[in-house]
Design goal:
Distance between the termini of chain A: 43 Å
Shape of chain A: globular
Number of strands of chain A: 11
Largest sheet of chain A: 6 strands, parallel
Radius of gyration of chain A: 21 Å
Number of helices of chain A: 14
Largest interface: A-B, 54 and 54 residues
Order of helices and strands of chain A: EEHEHEHEHEHEEEHHHHHHHEEHH
Oligomer: homodimer
């Protein structure tokens, strides 16, 4: 018995996707029934535009508004979407639409994969991280039993419509989480993009990716292209489980879990990239100068490079957990220079003393490194290199218990 | 972005799969960690053999025993399996094993598709329906919000090991549910198999498929082959949603839902086949003589052909619900003669008066038809043509509330 399937989809850059004359979303919907899933924040900002747009279409569309913070990335949220789809009479070829950030795309992807064993879905990512990472791939997932993304699916969307004008309303702190994933792609694949981020990153962050003119879109387009490129090598992660896009994603999941998801994903990825790079120095795979360029870049973009949660013992525990997810292999992605990377294959290759040394190395570097750009002309950002979680936890608890 | 995947698996007939010298299951496990999922009934009958077998292997295997009746086919059961897998440290390439009937295979298939976005699983189906239908395909599913199989997946197993000796311990009433699915395949694809069932069906049922010698295995092998043949035409049900194996599966789901899953799946399928065949007569697609052969065969095998739940209004409702699942098309499978079938494409093609007439036609035929075999030499079985659910409901409620 042989089971084969091939599914294609496009990721399109569409400015003003909700402006009534724009046909991109209407064309994706066809004349099918649809359920749009979004969160209260996106609803508050774009809900009126969405309803005006949908009002001009012949489709029978319902909108499901629900909390979708990282703490809501649960099977409960997925089942609530399934219930809403059932109530709305979503048929086998009808459509779900994810209108929000990475969590929204993840939850909708998984719900769509489950409903009637799979209904199509379209992503309208509204945050930077969703536009260049979480919302453009085929992976859905939710946290389960304290493990990040323990349950999930590989389910390609029907289409992804990336509207960079949504970023105008995204807070700078959120954009920073997204730019962290762009730094990731740049560090493993594209030195020019890295240099470009150093040049224009702060301005992009301050302007909602609208200045310098056209650069924001170019950066997004390049990051999307690099991501799809990497994904398409092994869409369904068959065979060997090594992926360059897992750079920054070995320790970060555990740090997020330990923070009860109050540490932003992009922040955790930045801390992970810093540590992974320092480990690369310990293992003789990366030069110290490159490590300092990497750390400086992260700091210049206002990203953290260390966290009190990242103790050597925790890092070892995270590596062990990741091995379970990578068929016994560690496959730690480490840069060998800016724009190129390799894999550290085995757990034994990273002994505890290397982790301890790496943590110290980052701490020392972050204390002494001036936050310089490539051209040494960027100001030092407000100190954010160590994150104190204490003032974040209560709010996060409230939001997750409100579900 | 193009996402392609191809997965192959074999369905093997293996006698005595748990006998310590049999390598089939050991070879499927390799040296991976595994979680076997089974229910208390299977555990009581085969648990000791299973543990002896596993005790002889180097693998780290845990056994998860849980209620898995039709009423337990819920997302809750799936998540309980996911929790057990998480506790047992199941890694990305480790293995789940479904050891039980159709519900067990369905639940494990869905759990395996969710855990870490997909871990491999092996099916060891112990009931007839699982061995020739539910346990050999790539569909997992659970009931949700009152809808049968509303949530599910297409996830090919790594392997299916069909051991016909398990049928020796399956009650005759359960075997009858399985033979109903074999009748289904025979009616739409294989007249010879239909005739063979009439010849040997009652003896197979009475002997746990062990007599006449070798015939049981031959019938199972043929049914498996026909099923895989049909599945492989459109594994993932892309494009047009018409499948010959959906014969008997248009009304049956609704009847099962209305019975609170106290009507056995195979019984509901038999009632559906009788009704679909009578509808075919109403629409001029099937001759009356063939209808009577079909009804006689079902009755001769001790299967019901009508149910008080199957009112014309309910049948219409079921057809409407099925259209949502078949992209607006009805695609009702109806036989045109014994061994061949066609599709009634549109809801409008089956008006309410045709349903009313079909229900009456079956009732009249079941009252008057002697339960004859092809050779007119089989005795009349105990009257089972109308199922009274009242004495089944309390027990079923208990078993589903015990979860």
């Amino acid at each position: 018995m042989t089971c084969e399937i091939s599914r294609g989809y496009d990721v399109s850059l569409v400015r003003g996707v909700l402006s009534p004359r724009n046909r991109a979303l209407a064309d994706s919907l066809g004349h099918r029934r649809a359920l749009v899933v979004t969160d209260p924040t996106v609803e508050a900002i774009h809900g009126a535009d969405l309803r005006t747009y949908l009002g001009g279409l012949p489709n029978d569309v319902d909108v499901h508004v629900t909390q979708l913070a990282e703490g809501d990335k649960s099977i409960g949220s997925v089942l609530a979407v399934c219930e809403a789809a059932q109530r709305h009479g979503i048929g086998r070829r009808d459509l779900l639409v994810a209108f929000g950030g990475g969590v929204c795309c993840d939850v909708v992807s998984l719900a769509a994969s489950l409903i009637r064993r799979g209904v199509p879905y379209v992503c309208l990512p509204t945050t930077l991280v969703a536009q260049i990472d979480a919302g453009i791939g085929l992976k859905g997932g939710v946290n389960f039993g304290g493990s990040k993304n323990y349950l999930g699916c590989f389910t390609p969307p029907q289409a992804v419509l990336v509207d960079p004008t949504f970023l105008l309303t995204v807070p700078e702190a959120e954009l920073r989480g997204g730019i962290s994933e762009i730094v990731k792609m740049a560090l493993v694949r594209d030195r020019r993009l890295f240099d470009q981020l150093l040049d224009v990153g702060p301005e992009l962050l301050a302007s909602g990716f609208s200045r310098p003119a056209t650069t924001g879109e170019a950066v997004i387009a390049r990051a999307v292209q690099l991501m799809l490129d990497e994904l398409s090598r092994n869409c369904y992660e068959e065979g060997r489980l090594d992926r360059l896009v897992d750079f920054g994603h070995t320790f970060s999941g555990r740090l997020e879990e330990l923070s009860a998801y109050t540490l932003r994903h992009g922040e955790a990825v930045a801390v992970d990239m810093a540590l992974s790079s320092a480990i690369a120095v310990e293992l003789g795979l990366l030069g110290e100068a490159d490590l300092h360029r990497i750390l400086s870049a992260l700091l210049a973009l206002g990203l953290p490079v260390r966290s009190p949660l990242a103790t050597p013992a925790t890092l070892m525990e995270a590596m062990r957990a990741v091995c379970l997810h990578r068929d016994g292999a560690l496959n730690l992605v480490v840069p060998t220079t800016v724009g190129e990377a390799t894999f550290v294959r085995r757990l034994e290759d990273v002994p505890l003393h290397a982790l301890t040394a790496a943590v110290s190395r980052v701490a020392a570097a972050a204390a002494n490194t001036p936050a310089v750009s490539r051209l040494d002309d960027k100001p030092l950002p407000a100190p954010r290199d160590v994150i104190d979680l204490r003032d974040r936890l209560p709010a996060a608890r409230n939001s997750s218990s409100s579900r």
